[in-house]
Amino acid sequence: MRAEELLQTLVRRTGLTEQHVQTLRSLEPIAGPLAPEVALAFYDYLGRDPEMHEILWGVPGRVERLYRSFAVWYREIFAGVYDANYALRRMHIGLVHARVGVRPGHFIPAVGIVQELTLEHLRNALRGSDILAAITAFEKIMSIEIALMQESYFSALWEGLKLTQNEQEALREGARVLLEQAH
């Protein structure tokens, strides 16, 4: 399935409406500045796992680059622009993760940290019915985020299994092939 078609399917499945999009846009001034704090918590969580620690800190400068990339990713959650390019960027992130050995079992639990900190911040910053609207919109876009990235893992694995039967190698090789095709 192409990224744009997948995004449309996910929007339909999650029930993300224009009102949710407007709500997410309105949250950017509240949530956007939280990006550095959320990035620190996200990578601290991942770094506690020995396998992830090696992936993240095994290459000099990688974590510092990832902090910057994370901040861009996080702010885009609240940009309110969820189009084909958005979907392609999210799927690209999943392919890069797969290529370096980050599996959904590493990434998806860490996204829980993102959700937890963001939801706590929103509950503290908002009042009344704004809280429920914000939480609902945020949960919908996070479901889409996770699904887009996870689909890229499946694509990488499917492509890689054509080359090798070792699952970890297949994931990395499939991601490499798909990233090369994208360029």
Automatic annotation (TrEMBL):
Pfam family, one: Protoglobin
Residues in Globin-sensor domain copies: 5-157
Gene3D superfamilies associated with the record: Globins
Residue ranges crossing the lipid bilayer per the database entry: none
A GO term for molecular function: heme binding
Entry protein name: Globin-sensor domain-containing protein
